[in-house]
Amino acid sequence: MLAEVERLFEEVSPESGLDAYREAVVDENILGKATTASRKRAFRALRELYALDPGDAAFRVLRFLWDGDPAGRPLLALLHVLRRDPLLRATAPIVLATPKGAPVSAGELSAALAPGFQGLSQDSVDKIGRYAASTWTQSGHVSGRVNKTRSTALCTPSVAAFAAFLAYLDGVAGEAVFESLYARASDRSPYVLRELAYEASRRGLIEYREMGTVIELSFRRLLEPELLHARAVA
Asked: Is 71 part of any domain?
């Protein structure tokens, strides 16, 4: 739902709460849905995928990084959804292990769901596979309309910082953050991600220090509850 998220974030300020997002989608219909029921479905899906709550640390940081990095938005969104959606997460190994230029099919992604989601009907599994293929296309990992092939997503310093932050929220520390699922989904080697993290540190997004084989990361600024308000008044 990348297009919907971009539209929603254009209309709702970063420091706003859940009610403001609900009002924008359901009451004001900024997404242009045909019926009230479809507006409510869209809001429910967006809330499940993105939280839409500045009290949620991952969402708060997503919004903080969003406006300053238009090029990184597809991958920022993907990383956030990857943390919240087990169905998308189940398809990640297939996509990330596919060599650049090799085909990626919705059928392969549907098959990846079979072991862990046996309660789903085949129709549901097939539909989820198609949605997952669309999601990975929007993020830049896959290209093509009908015959999809593996491509390389655009990773920026903000994306590298966000990937490391999400790994930190999941309890990962040190060098291991550059080998997490979020790091792999950033579509860069650990070495390149460390370089991008260093650049993010130079920009004041995170704190990154490398001393020999020891890597120290701090996310103190991103963990500040006042983060969004500070940007709004800056």
From this structure: no
Name the packing angle between helices 86-97 and 73-84 (round to 10°).
120
Q: Do 39 and 136 form a contact (C-beta atoms < 8 A)?
A: no
6 contact partners, CB below 8 Å, separation of at least 6: 73
pLDDT the model gives residue 234: 35
**Which of 227, 164, 230 shows the shortest CA–CA distance to 201?**
164
Angle at 203 between CA 198 and CA 204, to 5 degrees: 95
Sign of CA dihedral 152, 183, 202, 212: negative
Torsion of CA 152, 156, 158, 159, to 10 degrees: 10
Predicted confidence at residue 233, as pLDDT, reads 35
Rg (CA), the chain: 18
Provide the token pair at 187: 């579509």
- Domain span including residue 90: 76-150
Q: Is position 141 within any domain?
A: yes
Can you tell me whether residue 99 is helix, strand or coil? coil
| Domain identity same for 8 and 29 | yes
Q: Sorting pLDDT into bands at 50, 70 and 90, what band is 227?
A: low
Contact 102/149 with Cβ under 8 angstroms? yes
Q: Are 174 and 215 in contact (CB under 8 A)?
A: yes
Identify the band that residue 82 occupies on the pLDDT scale cut at 50, 70 and 90: very high
